[in-house]
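User: Hey, my collaborator sent me this sequence without any context and asked if I could get a structure. I don't really work with proteins. Can you help?
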Amino acid sequence: MLYRKMPSTGDDLSILGFGCMRLPQKEGRIDTEKAARQVRHAIDRGVNYLDTAWMYHGGESERFLAGALADGYRERVKLATKLPVCIVETRQDMDRFLNAQLQKLNTSRIDYYLAHGLNGDFWDRMQGLGLTEFLDHAKATGRIVNAGFSFHGLLPDFKRIVDAYPWQFCQIQYNFLDEQHQAGTEGLQYAAAKGLGVVVMQPLRGGTLGRPAPPPAIEAIWSESETPRTPAEWALRWVWNHPEVTVALSGMGEDAQVEENLAIASQAYPYSLTEAELALVGKAGRKYREIMKVGCTGCGYCEPCPMGVGIAASFDTYNHLHMFGNPAETKFLYVVRLCGVITGSRGYASQCERCGDCLVKCPQGLEIPDLLEKVAAELEGDWLPEKEVMVRRFFTGSPPAGCTT
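Assistant: No problem. I've predicted the 3D structure and written it out in structure-token form, which is a compact way to encode the shape of the chain:
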């Protein structure tokens, strides 16, 4: 495992951080046995930065992590969690959430505490509620050690937030598709120049950039390299090639992902990619932007939808159609994922009634209702009821209520 120093604290942190938003699941809940084994294995192999949040896994991620970090593991790591600013209404709420998080995590302190998902509007509102006074008080009382923020917004707002408080660190979305998105490369360099450590989220763009079998057009690009690398290695090495990056978070739900990321994190030094390799990554980025239709990372913040739409699944299937082709296969996959045979209720894109509830929640700023309309136009049709009957019979032996052949 390679380590980089958090410039504002002097902590030596593993360049690979374990993100606890995409833990393995079983029957819709965290598979605690599998997830705890993965977390402890990663720590045994040198990972020492773990990131969670109040809202991850329906509020269960922090509680899970308390158990995973028992038996001496808590003392071996730096623990990060986040104040859920989107549901904070008063200054008193800030203390209430933090104290509850300390209890859920079974710890006396949060090593790295973030205001979660700031943008310009959230920052202005939280400032009015007394966020900086809260952070000062929380540090003075020893409940948090270092204060930071995660960000999903526009670059000018990112810079003014960086300048508004003596932060120790920040967390930004960054990968080779997002050089000019949100904080981007300019924000990364700006924060680093101000002495902040930078933690990167979404280095694999919600897993899209790390697919073991990438779209054929992308696979053709990677095959041009003299040095064979997996898609995940290309994406992670590109992030770690930037010396301003302190830690890159990865949500690892499978054992194979943990092992692959650990192996990459033992070799990914700054400036280790050649100019030819960087040009190849740039070429892959341009191709991804061409074939991907929705910039969804699958974070799930937009859900649950009041109309029951499976927003993330709809967008993932829609992107699959345009990245891999094969409309017949993709339409079948769409029905399997959204007819309710897996989730228990239908979640088709056409169920959207444009209520706008999702728009204020999406950290990517996607025009979700408009995009869902495009999904429905391409992946739904008169054939849908018949296909749903077929899928339901295949999985359960009986058609869904209300459907006839």
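In plain terms: The mean pLDDT is 92. You can pass these tokens on to your collaborator as they are.
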